[in-house]
From TrEMBL:
Residues 35-202 form the Glycosyltransferase 2-like domain. This is Glycosyltransferase 2-like domain-containing protein. Pfam families: Glycos_transf_2. GO terms for molecular function: glycosyltransferase activity.
Length: 375
């Protein structure tokens, strides 16, 4: 039960000009529990299924759907408006807006606009081409109440079945601890953007999405900034979203090199700056690429490369030919059993038939302390 409200008598100018505290209380009373945030761009073929799933949510609190159309050239806006009656009959208010530019402004811009026109205490991010399962809002809301400064995710089912098999398995099987330790992997955010749920308070503290447009990984930039601010990560261990894969997905416009640079910078900031020395696990292409991308300060901390390939080990060392130093740096290459922690592991997960994992376990190393994956 809600406690009874205390009445207070106001008069004169105070009655005409609400205090900051009064305004805050009025805004809280006007707010709904959850705003579903949905950017839209040429999504008309997906929208009926997406919106039907929103209608079928078993959440009993108040909800609104906030849609921002980013210069669609199909009939996306018309399709959404066609659902207004059904949504409102279910008690879900619809907020719909768009801009008049001929060109789309990008996913970050559209998300920011959808958030700014909404008033929910919690934000549920929904891509227009995905489908939420009936329990999604309820279960993520319940977890967010307990973790108000965390990004909350969930398990997913990929559609078409079997597409991005390794990526989907990674999304669904990494542990709670690995949500934090594997933030440097090439997969991107360990809590994947289409599953995000968080408090409005936390979103505003972290800041808006980058609005650079096509090719900008606005989700990864926000994700790293949230971690910098001390935010947590968690996941409802149920499948709550059908995550659709198709060739027009916005994430496919982001280049691998853009993601690589962001990951290297974040790794240096969060991990390598706290280590005096470390070993790069992989003397091949990916390990050498990481070394070359490090700042000179962190390059000097690399005491060795380690590997299992006898051909690489027999070479004895890696020479950094691009260096301007004289003589050029030579970094030893050793067998992993002769190397010492901590390690940055530049070998792809789930690609060695379990050999990498067995080798790491044989050294009795702890992920997040003795090694981090950068792969």
């Amino acid at each position: 039960m809600n406690p009874p409200k205390r009445l207070r008598i106001i008069s004169g100018s105070e009655a005409l000009t609400p205090t900051g505290e009064q305004r805050r209380q009025e805004e809280e009373e006007a707010a709904v529990d959850v705003s579903i945030i949905m950017p839209v761009y040429n999504a008309s073929c997906w929208l009926d299924e997406c919106l039907q799933a929103i209608l079928e949510q078993d959440f009993t609190g108040s909800m609104e759907l906030s849609v921002f159309d980013d210069a669609s050239t199909d009939d996306s806006r018309k399709v959404v408006e066609g659902w207004r009656g059904k949504l409102e009959a279910r008690g879900i208010s619809l907020l719909m807006s768009h801009h008049n530019s001929a060109q789309p402004r990008g996913v970050g811009f559209a998300k920011n606009k959808a958030i700014s026109q909404s008033c929910g205490k919690y934000l549920c991010f929904q891509d227009a081409d995905d489908v939420m399962l009936p329990q999604r809002v309820r279960l993520q809301y319940e977890m967010s109440l307990l973790q108000p400064i965390s990004l909350i995710g969930c398990r997913v089912r990929r559609l078409p079945e079997g597409s991005t098999e390794r990526y989907t398995r990674w999304i669904n099987t990494i542990t709670q601890d690995q949500l934090m330790t594997q933030v440097y992997t090439s997969h991107g955010p360990t809590v994947v953007m289409p599953t995000w749920f968080c408090s409005r308070h936390w979103f505003l503290k972290v800041g808006l999405f980058d609005e650079g447009g096509k090719g900008v990984p606005e989700d990864l930039l926000f994700f790293y900034q949230s971690l910098r601010q001390g935010g947590g990560l968690s996941r409802v261990n149920q499948c709550l979203l059908v995550y659709r894969y198709h060739e027009n997905a916005a994430t496919l416009s982001v280049t691998e090199e853009t993601i690589w640079k962001l990951r290297v910078d974040f790794l240096q900031e969060r991990v390598l700056s706290h280590w005096e020395t470390f070993t790069i696990w992989n003397a091949g292409k990916q390990g050498r690429k990481l070394y070359r991308c490090l700042s000179p300060v962190h390059q000097k901390k690399v005491k060795a490369f380690c590997d299992v390939d006898e051909n690489k080990i027999q070479k004895g060392f890696y020479t950094y030919e691009e260096s301007k130093e004289i003589p050029k740096p030579k970094i030893p290459i050793v067998h992993y059993k002769d190397a010492s922690a901590p390690f940055i592991v530049c070998v792809k997960l789930d690609m060695t038939g379990g050999v990498l994992e067995e080798n790491l376990n044989s050294l009795q190393l702890k992920e997040g302390e003795d090694y981090y994956h950068f792969n």
